[in-house]
Amino acid sequence: MSSGLDTLPPELLQLIWDRLGAADTSSLRLVSKRIKEFSNRHFSVVNFKTVRTNLDQSSLQRLVDVANNIHHAINVTCLYFENAVDTVLGRNTHWDRRPSGPVTNRSAAAETLQYLLVHKLVNCRSFVIKHADDHMMTDEVGDTIEDEYNYDGLSTGDTTNLLFTVIAETGLMVKSLTISNWGYKGSNRVGGPIPTAKLSLDLFRQSRFKIPWIDLYELILEYEISHDHYDWIFDLISCASNLQILSLGFEDESGNFLKRLASATSAPPLCKLTLASAKLSGQLILDLLNNFKGSLVDLCLRYVGSDEDSSWNSILAFLAEKPLQLRRLSLFYLCESWDSWNSNVIHFSALRKVMNVDSMIVTDVHEKDIDRGLGGQMDNVMKLKYLECSGTVMGVSYKGSEMKMALETLAKAAELGV
How far apart are alpha carbons 410 and 32 in whole angstroms? Predict the structure, then answer.
């Protein structure tokens, strides 16, 4: 005889499973064969949607085991290349390299990875490359030299080139890509650089490399993008006709790349744009917003400097005068001068009223406080949030329909401090 639980539709079973702990789900697996099969599927969805690997021999074998389990493999949608602090990507594994340095896909480990992605992990089309160790060599001033290693393994650039080569060779259609190089010692604004020598730029120029990015919807590059990376990144963005989320960090002045992006004739339908370690003017921000008009509703600026002829007060006031479609704005660690990151920092401490807040917590500034600052009346509720660091408001964010009022408030509150 079937129990009441055994007769429930899958949608209700899913709701129940989402609220149960491991002990309860283990007990329920004994109810019936149907419940056990549902539990197996639920277990795979929860635990194998994202699979992590550091590309050493044991990690690759675990990936093979997952791929050979049909129940697990079909639920894998993201492959996460990550090394922990005490591990190294690809250690004790042979990797073939071109004479010029870049890693190829002509090694047993690379061929295994390629085979699994093409034939086993058929739904895995999102990739994350995260380098977060402290094993890199440094020069006399402590900056990382990524192309010189004191261990046998893969750098962020090596892993990126390996994945890109597999994508070009197989035509895998990529949905999402994140490259994060936060193991770098030389910067706290954005991840460290990836040397061009690590990348097969000649491959990146070929159509067989560009086609797989057509369906890309998310591109996050958390490293210092240098001038010699501009062309292939711009080509990739141009190919991604469905790109909705874009996050970029820069090594130095970013004006040329961003002007190019602002004037692109085939701009993708971006919904969210994040820029880090960039140099901006009010007009450049407006040009970017206008080129993605109708789609871009979320703008985030981190560690961004104003150009020589602008101040953040004037930039924010300038934007407040324009008809913007923005519904969300986040600002953190803005600087009045590109070359002075330890001084000339903009803060918004005037937004803080009589609140008692601890360092590094986010607190609401209520509509009555903003109303007094503007000297007017508000018909709708509007709340700004701010990030307070050691008594100074270093970051602010706003989400809502009153963007003009929020920008006017921020323009008045922005102050230059150390």
Answer: 60
